[in-house]
Design brief:
alpha+beta, four-stranded antiparallel β-sheet, 62% helix
């Protein structure tokens, strides 16, 4: 099949390049629309209490709607109670109400009680007012339009000494969308020059570097085009674009590097272009395919986590790897055939080439280093394992939660407004717990139970207050407060009382909201404990015609964490089984896959440990990167890291073991084949690791905390995997396992004579001439040359 494919490329390589050119032009046009289609959603757990509460309060309440925002108005010049403050704030509210893009259906807050002696919607400083708006625009549209509207507000009111900022889920993720695009550009500005320099140093050829960049770039463009088409029918997270770019650059260029390097090695041995390409695809191409399948399968296991944001990011990651594999196997061979021997042209560092740079792995320093490790395998294995175990210990303290506005830069108006709400009204006011009570009949019949529930919630520890309509209803109808909800009576209430009732009671009087205001942030430990108590109280009152559920930001985060924790055992089990099967079939070995899994568990644990240290509360690393050092990592980051790092670590395992297996099948003993495999792959894997660390490290500077966390964890893990694991732990373990490395049921090792173990088949990478040379020249102590 490989021979036929290579001959086909040779015949139609120029038309194939033209087809790829057309595909890239079309894909580029489609990819441009991707950012506007991405969603900040995906955090709601299907079937969870918090999801039901979020859906129920979208309709029928004043100041709540399809999309709900809190507008924070800060007047630097005038204080509340003055005519100037009143006029300026009222004008800002009117501007929002009249903005046709926002479709403000209702609002509630400062405007309801302005002029009152005590206004709970005026901040402690007397210069800040808040107003809640319900918008009749869907969440996805809101997230697209709100960033532009916010910037218009900044320009319109800034010169007047007013800050008008929007707080809420839609403004937050709308801002994240904008920051994500800006961060992507910033990361690319940092990463692309680094990648170019690293490729030039590794390949010592501008032609090779350019071809690798073209292949990876083509994969990224096609991926974005497919994601853009998918986004028309499915909600894709705003984090998909950054994740796909980061992974696509790393994996795509890595795959290209391995194939280009092998192609050049074959050409340097004197093979003609067609034969060199055939051998390359049968060896490195096969390895790239196995590696890509491993990553895709690992990402597919995340479907067991029933959280849309994780599933959409996993889809993007799997897609970019799949397209990278296709580009490496379908586009790159065409480019290599077209370029041919010119692949090594324009050696920009010819004078810097060390004398040891040779195609023979036995003449490299890596070969001598590998033998030094193999002479003391117990020391290398125990020492390396101990270092990994120590690095993994901090992972025990890893704490996760859903992101809030604190992950945005302090220069953002959305972040400043969020901080202002916390400062002026209280930390809990920015993210109240929402207790929604739904009755099968009008609420008047359950008034006593609802009042008792409100009082019990207010008595819980760490509750500042409970906001509800009960006080207003009591004033309207003393002794029988819920009679004020009767048809005709409610409409005759004073305007302020009617607005308050409308904010907490639905129009049909079958739903009521009580907001529990905690003392601390939504993600604080004591707030999460409070949620448990609130839900216990709600559960006791639930039933007998009432359905009571608890939502809000804390509940959404806790529900998301739970669904991740519930799905994690299945994810890990299926992923490890899939990796085991793939490696077992690839290398015809039972013990090597088990060893790979054990080692990968250690390296992934180190990544978690370093992530916990870097983003712990008060961490200088987080502060240096411009992130919120709250001590909590975004909850989807660890599970994504787990899948990505297991698959990427397996990548390196596949590349190393692929070469080791070639030498072993060619007749080298276990120890010698390990040393030769390490020597043959060491320079390239180290270079690939440097490249990946540069890519992932560059994305820590994107300004988007979840992406920064993901990039940091991946950079650390790849660095550890390519050094400590591949240089010490893996060779030491293979030395100690001896011939058991290659044990496979029903499989016997072929004769050690290379002539018997090689055929004209392109599954091996040399010609019969090479085999003859090996048979004639190799002494008993000299390993064969693949």
């Amino acid at each position: 099949m490989t021979e036929r494919f290579v001959r086909f490329i040779g015949r139609v390589r120029w038309p194939l390049l033209a087809v790829w050119g057309v595909l890239l032009v079309v894909s580029g046009a489609l990819a441009l629309s991707l950012p506007d289609k991405l969603s900040g959603g995906g955090w709601y757990v299907p079937g969870a209490q918090s999801t039901w509460v979020a859906q129920q309060q979208k309709d029928g309440f004043t100041g709540r709607g399809e999309t709900s925002v809190t507008v924070v108005i800060h007047d630097e010049r005038f204080a509340a109670g003055t005519d100037r403050f009143d006029r300026r704030v009222r004008q800002a509210v009117a501007d929002i109400e009249d903005d046709g893009r926002l479709k403000a259906a209702s609002h509630y807050g400062w405007s309801t009680f302005r002029g009152a002696t005590e206004n709970t919607f005026v901040g402690r400083d007397g210069h800040t007012a808040i107003e809640m708006f319900g918008l009749d625009v869907d969440d996805g549209t809101a997230r697209r339009i709100l960033p532009d509207i916010q910037r218009e507000f900044d320009a319109r009111y800034g010169e007047r000494g007013l800050t008008v900022g929007m707080v809420g889920t839609a403004p937050f993720f709308g801002e994240i969308n904008v920051l994500s695009e800006e961060g992507l550009v910033r990361a690319e500005v940092i990463v692309l020059p680094l990648i170019t320099l690293i490729l030039l140093l590794l390949f010592r050829s501008a032609v090779s570097a350019v071809i690798a960049m073209i292949t990876a770039g083509a994969a990224a463009v096609v991926t974005f085009a497919v994601l853009s088409l998918l986004a028309d029918s499915y909600d894709l997270s705003v984090f998909v674009q950054n994740t796909a770019t980061m992974l696509g650059l790393g994996v795509g260029i890595d795959y290209s590097m391995f194939i280009i390097r092998r192609f050049r090695d074959e050409l340097e041995r004197g093979e003609p272009v067609e034969n060199a390409l055939r051998v390359t695809l049968a060896t490195s191409g096969e390895t790239v395919l196995a590696s890509g399948v491993t990553v895709i399968v690992s990402m597919a296991t995340l479907a067991f986590v029933d959280l849309p944001v994780i599933q959409s990011i996993a889809l993007g990651a799997a897609l970019v790897v799949a397209v990278s594999v296709l580009a490496a196997l379908l586009l790159l061979p065409v480019l290599l055939y077209a370029v041919g021997p010119r692949i090594g042209r324009w050696d920009l560092f010819a004078r810097l080439r060390p004398a040891s740079a040779t195609a023979d792995p036995r003449e490299r320093g890596w070969y001598r280093f590998a033998h030094r490790v193999l002479r003391r395998p117990v020391l290398a294995l125990v020492g390396g394992g101990a270092v990994l175990a120590v690095g993994a210990v901090p992972a025990l303290g890893l704490d996760t939660f859903t992101p809030d506005a604190r992950i945005t830069p302090t220069t953002s108006t959305v972040r400043q407004s969020y901080d202002r709400v916390e400062e002026q009204f209280g930390k809990g006011d920015a993210s109240p717990m929402v207790v929604l009570i739904r009755s099968d009949h009008p609420l008047r019949g359950a008034g006593g139970r609802i009042a008792a529930l409100r009082d019990e919630l207010g008595a819980l520890e760490h509750v500042r207050r409970v906001d509800s309509p009960l006080d207003v209803l009591e004033q309207a109808a003393p002794g029988r407060p819920f009679d004020a909800l009767a048809p005709g009576v409610r409409d005759r209430l004073p305007a302020a009382a009617r607005a308050t009732v409308g904010h907490f009671v639905s129009r049909d009087a079958t739903e009521l909201i009580a907001q529990v205001i905690p003392e601390d942030h939504a993600s604080a430990t004591r707030t999460r404990r409070l949620l448990t108590e609130v839900r216990k109280v709600a559960a006791k009152a639930d039933g007998d015609g009432l359905r009571i559920a608890v939502g809000g930001q804390t509940a959404e985060g806790v529900d998301a964490n739970k669904v991740i924790a519930d799905g994690l055992p299945t994810v890990v089990g299926v992923m490890l089984l899939a990796i085991f099967v793939i490696l077992m079939l690839s290398f015809r070995s039972v013990l090597l896959p088990l060893k790979a899994i054990a080692v990968n568990v250690l390296s992934v644990s180190v990544a978690f440990g370093m992530l916990a240290l870097a983003f712990r509360e008060g961490s200088p690393v987080a502060e240096a990167l411009g992130f919120d050092p709250s001590g909590r990592v975004t909850n989807f980051v660890p599970v994504l890291l787990l899948a990505l790092l297991f698959s990427l670590s397996t990548d390196y395992e596949v590349f190393v073991l692929g070469r080791v297996r070639e030498y072993y099948k060619a007749g080298a003993g276990n120890t010698e084949s390990v040393a030769l495999g390490i020597s043959a792959t060491g320079p390239l894997i180290t270079g690939a690791a440097v490249l990946m660390v540069a890519v992932f490290g560059g994305f820590t500077l994107s300004g988007i905390q979840p992406i920064g966390e993901l990039g940091f964890g991946m950079a650390v893990a790849i660095a550890v995997d390519a050094t400590l694991v591949r240089m010490f732990v893996v060779p030491a373990a293979m030395k100690l396992m001896g011939s058991a490395n290659w044990w496979f049921p029903g499989h016997r090792r072929a004769s050690s004579t290379p002539a018997h173990s090689r055929t004209r088949s392109t599954q091996q990478h040399g010609s019969e001439r090479h085999v003859a040379e090996l048979s004639a020249d190799r002494g008993p102590e000299v390993p064969p040359r693949p």
